[in-house]
Amino acid sequence: ETGVTQTPRHLVMGMTNKKSLKCEQHLGHNAMYWYKQSAKKPLELMFVYSLEERVENNSVPSRFSPECPNSSHLFLHLHTLQPEDSALYLCASSQQNRVTGELFFGEGSRLTVL
Amino acid sequence: RKEVEQDPGPFNVPEGATVAFNCTYSNSASQSFFWYRQDCRKEPKLLMSVYSSGNEDGRFTAQLNRASQYISLLIRDSKLSDSATYLCVVPAEGSNYQLIWGAGTKLIIKP
Questions:
Q1: Chain A positions touching chain B (beta carbons under 8 Å)
Q2: Based on the number of CB atoms within 10 Å of its own CB, is B61 exposed (0-12), middle (13-18) or buried (19 or more)?
Q3: Under the phi-then-psi rule, with left for phi > 0, alpha for psi from -120 to 50, and beta for the rest, what region is B96?
Q4: What is the pLDDT of residues A4-62, one digit of tens each?
Q5: Closest alpha carbon within chain A to B9
Q6: pLDDT of residue B50 exceeding 60
Q7: How far apart are CA B110 and CA B78, in angstroms?
């Protein structure tokens, strides 16, 4: 069983759709992250949850809405997206503060917005 | 100056050769640094952590130059399986969770 699992792996949606990305970690970690990776650009941190509490929110548009119901699950709810939101969305987890800990990533959800 | 800057490459290197690439960073207070590896259409995975002057793990050596604010990654006796994009990562100033990622250096090892 992989440590961090993301579903769906691929998603195509129109600008008026509502969809959700799901992430589950089986590592017993305390922190979970959503990152956005666009082609030839650095990873951009979107949200961080530590012990189910949101601790970072990097000026992400409100059309992206995170949810962390427990320390093993993280969702990213998508609504009224724009074509420029097409990217790879990566979920990650870490045991503790990332300065001393390693980030474990899921395989990502590749999103295409038409 | 970008917070973390890398040469995008690609570096085309024959199998068995030694290759090195650098990463420059702007946060002079950083105490830890990371190299991640990302294979094509896959997720990033931690390759090495650097907390002092450097780190070595088999064929891979990471060196830190604080005075000039860069870290390097050296790969000896390169293998075809080393082909990937290498991401330089530095903690952001004033945040417990923010990491600043470079855009990556693409390495292609040729037979």
A1: 31, 33, 40-43, 45, 48, 50, 55-56, 58, 90, 97-100, 102-103, 105-108
A2: middle
A3: alpha
A4: 999 999 999 988 889 999 999 999 999 999 999 998 899 999 999 988 888 877 789 99
A5: A40
A6: yes
A7: 9
Which residues have C-beta within 8 Å of that of residue B45, sequence separation ≥ 6? A105, B36, B37, B38
Residue B5 touches chain A, beta carbons under 8 Å:
no
> Which amino acid does the sequence have at B80?
L
Which helix (H) or strand (E) segment holds residue A33: the answer is: strand A31-37
Residue with tokens 């604010």: B69
Q: Two tokens at A8? A: 């769906």
Contact (Cβ atoms closer than 8 angstroms) between residue B105 and residue B22? no
Q: How far is CA B54 from CA B60, B64, B82, in A?
A: 11, 5, 20
Rg over CA atoms, chain B: 13
Q: A102, A100, A93: which is closest to A71 by C-alpha?
A: A93
